[in-house]
Amino acid sequence: MYSIAELETFLAIIKHQGVVNAAKQLRLSPATVSHRLNKLEQHLGMTLLFRDSRTLTLSPAGSTFRERVEHILEALYDAEHEIGARGSAVSGLLRVTMPPWVFSQFVMPNLSQFEQAHPQLALDFLINDQFVNIVEGAQDVAIRVGQLADSGLLARKLCDNHRILCAAPSYIDRYGMPDNISELQNHFFVCLPWQREFKLKEPNGRIVHFNAKTRFTISNSDNMTSAALAGHGIAVKSHIAIRDNLKRGELVPIIPGCLESDDAPIWFVRPQHSLKTRKAEAFYEFMRALFENKG
To answer: Is residue 30 classed exposed, middle or buried when 0-12, 13-18 and 19+ CB atoms within 10 A define those classes?
Structure first.
């Protein structure tokens, strides 16, 4: 049976890109590190790392094995911590994906506080407005906005939120304020590429399938807000993302309540079968505090 030391050595070789570098970090001889890796591969009966004098590449089996080993060792370290057998510092690497506006408006301005609280924890952010499959994308946790369609996730709500149509006063001055859904057909929108079609609700309750007229689309929610602020068109935005712009009068609501499905809560999610780790819980508490009383 392989040992915990061999698993830790395997991860160290990957992290530090080679046997020699891993040996320095582990304060072992390169021969010992190499022996541990060879012993692990022999026990498993397969190659985990393709290596030569210059490069090191994970095999398909090695990639899968690394992902599982990382979670298993983290759970083991957490268990040791709970019984007082390990130090209290949260450490390791946490992979997080979230929309750009959540990162720029909430996380980035407060990130130094999290770093000071957890100096041994490294964060790998995947900032993307498009849907990221957190299992296939090897993400530990995700911040999602809107209704969750994936039942294979463990989700905790951070706060309530809703989407609205909005535009800059400069756009309204140029094109006029639409008073009803029919008039929206004559207006320009700034949209994410996958957001051009949505449903609107008329006062009588009738649902209308709407195709937004655009001069351009933008695949980044922060840049889309900038385009709306510059007067390029009407935008569909999360209220919490533009709350300050609304307060300052830089954006104004368009036909409030006209979106058929405007409920868009902010969620903290992780894969259903992932192990609960201290690093994920530390980041959850950080995010929970950021969104407290924001909904």
So the answer is: middle
Domains (range + CATH), the chain: 4-82 (1.10.10.10), 92-160+265-291 (3.40.190.10), 163-254 (3.40.190.290)
Alpha carbons within 13 angstroms on the beta-carbon side of residue 276 total 6
State pLDDT tens for residues 226-262. 999 999 999 999 999 999 999 999 999 999 999 998 9
* Residue-by-residue DSSP string for 182-250: HHHTTSEEEE-GGGSEEEEE-TTS-EEEEE-EEEEE-S-HHHHHHHHHTTS-BEEEEGGGSHHHHHTTS
Give residue-wise pLDDT tens across range 239-248.
999 999 999 9
In one-letter notation, the amino acid at residue 1 is M
pTM: 0.75
